[in-house]
Amino acid sequence: MIPLPLDRLAAIVGGELRGAATAASPAPPAAGAVVEAVGVDSRRLPRQSLFVALRGRERDGHDFLEEAAANGAVAALVRAATPAAALPAIAVDEPLAALQRLAAWYRRAHLGRVVAVTGSNGKTIVKDALYAQLVGTFAAAASPGSFNSQLGVPLAVLAAPPGTAVAVFEAGISAPGEMAALRRILAPDCGILTNVGLAHIAAFQDRRHLAREKLSLFAEMSGGAAALEAGWLLFPEGDAMVDEEAAALPCRLVRYPGDPSLPRLVARRVAVGSGWSAGSEWSARSGEVPGGGGGRGSAASGLHERLEVRFPSGRVRDLSVRTRSAEIVEDLMLAVCAALLLGVPEERIADSLRDYVPPPTRLEVWRSPAGIVLVNDLVSADPISVRAALRTTSELAPKGGRKVFVFGGMRELGPLAGAEYAAVGALAGEYRFDALLLVGGGGGGELAATRDAYLAAHPAGQAAVLPGVDEARRRLRSLLAPGDTLLLKGPRHSGIAAAALDVMDAMAPNRLIVDLGAVAGNVASFRRAAGPRTRILAMVKALSYGSELVRLSAWLSEAGIDHLGVSTADEGVELRRAGIQLPILVTLPTPEEAEKLARFELLPALYSFALVEPLAAAARAALPPGRPLAVHLKVDTGMHRVGVAPGEALALAQAAKATGALRVTGLMTHLASAEDPAADDDTRRQLALFEQARADLAAAGYGGLICHAAATAAAARFPEARYDMVRLGLGLFGLYPSPAVEAAIPLQLAVTLLSRIAEVRTLARGDRVGYGGTYTVTAERLRVGVLPIGYHDGVPWSLSNRGAALVGDRPAPILGRISMDSLIVDLAAAPDAAPGSEALLFGAHHGAVLRPEQVAAQAGTIPYELLARLGPRIQRVYVGF
After folding, report:
1. How does 174-205 read in b/e, with b if 16+ C-beta sit within 10 Å?
2. In the prediction, which pLDDT does 670 show?
3. Order of strands across the sheet with 232-236?
4. What pLDDT does 387 receive?
5. Residues tagged active-site
6. Mean per-residue pLDDT, 624-639
7. Which pLDDT score, from 0 to 100, does residue 328 have?
8. Got the DSSP string for 210-274?
């Protein structure tokens, strides 16, 4: 979104500008105040934001205007009858409609071509895969997450950067008439229809009316001869009803895969382990796996496929994707076709989808160390997605293991419900699921139809209609065994999601739990401290401090963060390919990475004159003429790591400008000891040097730079170091670099590392424990527990014989040397501990707290290392969404 003065914004939406109320009297309207973003959650607002006060089912945003003001909003969009509040307001009849008008204006004024994606299933997969192919060829943008509703679409449009050449937006509907509003906002130039299923069918007369409503999104795509040549609608062939309804549209209809101008999938190969399975090729036309139906002959241990795609040029290219779902492969192929239609070179398409990972929005697959496979698909629950999940789970299931299906029902099927529920049961029986647990969902009668159809198709199976999720959890704990596969399928907000977390906890003995609610609270604390005009950059280098790069970054990008920060170009490219559109600062770029930095429009820290020409050459080759690559100058004020001397900052800026291909948009430094009160004089000397560099640049005409010097410690302790942006790393997770930082800002602990006792043993006096026998039992009898976690998983070896876990809320000292895969703890203080009991390595769990800072100090290291060294075998679990 572009910066908009309030009076201009009020004119665009047709509202009345009002001033903020004060203790004495209402102030005059703040016409000159500038809005740079919009937000609807008063707890998580972007910098310089307009808070849109919406009325929900349970809460009304107008009740949170004061909280919005405290969290950085500069104005609010409110209903006309709202009394004067704590911040300036634009009063309108209906805030949501006004937000939609603002988005429609912005789309026409500041965005180029728009591709709209709609359909019953697969919209997010297609949108994200298409964006991954566009970025690096065009200045591209896309909807964050699944922003496709009456609210989500305008928020997605306003989040796209001005000057975007190609934008890809989802559009979803749940009732007749909704698509007209989305069409007015998006005014698409091109479109993709993924399918027309039965999602939300109860709100429509029949499937034809649903198709007509979806296709109405593209009813105005012609707009004259030139647009008629450029506009197209891409959709799968084979649905006669959709074909009939689409025939009335005034644009080119492109049917996949039959249109000769499109790429075509000719073969798929299943990956097994680190290689490709022998004899695993099958025809993309038939979709049959050698060895029989249901995937029983497929290589179930692999989660990768190599797709062989023949392009219209005649060349066959390989695309490597991390999925085994035939439906997701079809969605990816739609995205490949759309990318080619939009002008992405085929070699760029192949490169962008090399080792492509579909976003974690649906059909997540987890594997436990014991070999249990969990397929978690709780984003939607309609007949198409249920069939896809059953098929994919059957293909993934290892030979010899059982398959269990937990089904929470479907919604909004109307009179079709009985037949569709029975069809789900029959299909589960045909795929030979060994057990079917039916929970809540569509009600006893419909779920009974699922059960009866399942048993008719598979009489040897077990089926039960359960009263609630708690009973399902109990059944699963006793039912699942190594080698089994579990499918959890139900509506997005069903209680089965809680069962999924419970099962993941049970599957993975070692878990890092990341509380996203606590992360959001920490961001809000820093935003309140720094003020509404200061941007927040989240450092997500080193796998987001050991959590998970893509997943956490995707969530942060929707939670009011302004920038992301990484160390290397490859980390930035991974985020871009995952659909992250925020500015991504790369703090340690190299000349060899220049092509990636430019192609994916990352934001390199320019810390050396040697980087200037490689970056400029790459920018000229990768970016459109007149579109320079933005850079931030890095000044070394005393860290002595990278950066030019403060007196060289102006010369470096001039060298970058002289290339014509680079644009200096920021100035940064790094403070060496901001967490240490004993070094405060040194910190202030560094800030003084940074100030001199700022002054030199400003005097030479370099104004409007984003200046940033403060990481977590300085953001908390040095208000003068906050400048235009602060960089948060450890502080995101509620950890403190020092006691002085803890005294400066309250944070919520957001990370917890848990293990589970694998075995309990009783040792006798004189027994020696672990490698080298460095601990000798002195008690007559001593109960010890074996934890399946060791230094490969990130537990510091230096905690041998000195650290402790908490079992329950009791200390369990570590005995002997920590092994690569295990450690032994003393259970003398925890007499009730047994195999399966949880052990807290650090964090907070069920009232017990073991601060990571304390553990790091015992290990002779720092909290940063404690998080960053966590190994790949630890399951990352996110809570508090």
Report:
1. eeeebbebbbebbebbbbbbbbbbbbbbebbe
2. 97
3. 140-142, 164-170, 111-118, 190-193, 232-236, 252-256
4. 83
5. 541, 771
6. 94
7. 80
8. HHHHHHGGGTT---SHHHHHH-EEEEES--HHHHHHHTTSSSEEEEETT-TTS-EEEEEEEEETT
How far apart are the C-alpha atoms of 786 and 816, rounded to whole Å?
12
Go through 231-265 and write b for each residue having 16 or more CB atoms within 10 A of its CB, e for each that does not.
bbbbbbeebeebeebbeebebbebbbbebeebbbb
3-class DSSP state of 425: helix
Cα dihedral 498, 500, 501, 507 sign: positive
Q: Indicate if the pLDDT at residue 677 is higher than 50.
A: yes
Segment 427-437, tens digit of pLDDT: 999 889 999 99
Q: Burial level of 518, CB count in 10 A (0-12/13-18/19+)?
A: buried
Structure tokens at 837: 């009991």
Amino acid present at 507: M
Which residues make beta-bridge pairs with 58? none
Average pLDDT over residues 703-709: 95
Burial class of residue 682 in the structure, from the number of CB atoms within 10 Å of its CB (0-12 exposed, 13-18 middle, 19+ buried): middle
pLDDT digits (tens, 9 = 90+) for 217-247: 999 997 443 443 468 999 999 899 999 999 9
Q: State the maximum Cα–Cα separation within the chain, in Å, rounded to a whole number.
A: 92
- What is the overall mean pLDDT for the chain? 86
Phi, psi of 131 (to 5 degrees): -60, -40
Q: What share of the chain is helix, strand, coil (3-state, %, to 5)?
A: 35, 25, 40
Contacts of 55 (CB under 8 A, 6+ apart): 61, 62
* SS3 of 814-842: EECCCCCCCEEEECCCCCCCCCCCEEEEE
pLDDT tens profile 327-367: 788 899 999 999 999 999 999 898 888 767 665 545 566 66
What one-character DSSP code corresponds to residue 353? T
Mean pLDDT of 582-601: 95
Residue type, 274: S
Taking a C-beta distance cutoff of 8 angstroms, is the pair 607, 643 a contact? Answer: yes
> Under 8 Å CB-to-CB from 810, ≥6 apart: which residues?
829, 830
Residue recorded with tokens 């560094």: 686
Q: Which of 416, 424, 431, 361 lies closest to 387 in space, CA to CA?
A: 424
Of all helices (H) and strands (E), which one includes residue 438? strand 435-439
